[in-house]
Amino acid sequence: MGFSGHLVFARSERPLLEAPLFNSTDPGLRDDVHEWQQRPGGWQTLQLEQGIWEDEYLSTLVEWTGAPACVADLSDSSVALVTGLDTNGNRWQAWLNLDNAAALLVEEPEDVDDVSLWTTTPEFEEAIGHKRAELDAEVPADAKGALVWASAAGIQAAAQQPRIEELLRARETFVEELFDALLDELGFPEAAHSAPQP
Questions:
Q1: Total-model pTM
Q2: What is the spatial distance between Cα 14 and Cα 99, in angstroms, rounded to a whole number?
């Protein structure tokens, strides 16, 4: 059973848990937040349980920290949608584990009575192939957005865009590992241990 929820990545001199966001919103929000390994320079990652993150929280967090931040929306550790925001309001998004994202995003035909049967058909495989091609076509722009965002965070990325594109097209059993690898590749200081605390 994989993790479903959100990974929130931001920089602050204070613990991210002190952000007003975690005190003023749903009381359950704070209870379901766990800290991951910190990275040097005040970069921190929080792991939030399913269903307690709203889109506007990202801009609230960027405003509080005064630095770019991003959030990865994970489903069962198999797929993630990463959304980054900088202090000028520029956003970027990228899917991680594109094959799984394509399967998740493919729309079922209206004339399908039983979805479980449809997922075993050649038509379903073809639909996934089309969706995967669409997502793949977005990768260069997504990679460029990620690099611009990292640069706005004061990070001088060692990686070139082709390497980021390669990562965005990569596949990992646990999408959390891809998220960490993306942050590493973008040039953020590496944590002593990338794995989350149990």
A1: 0.89
A2: 38
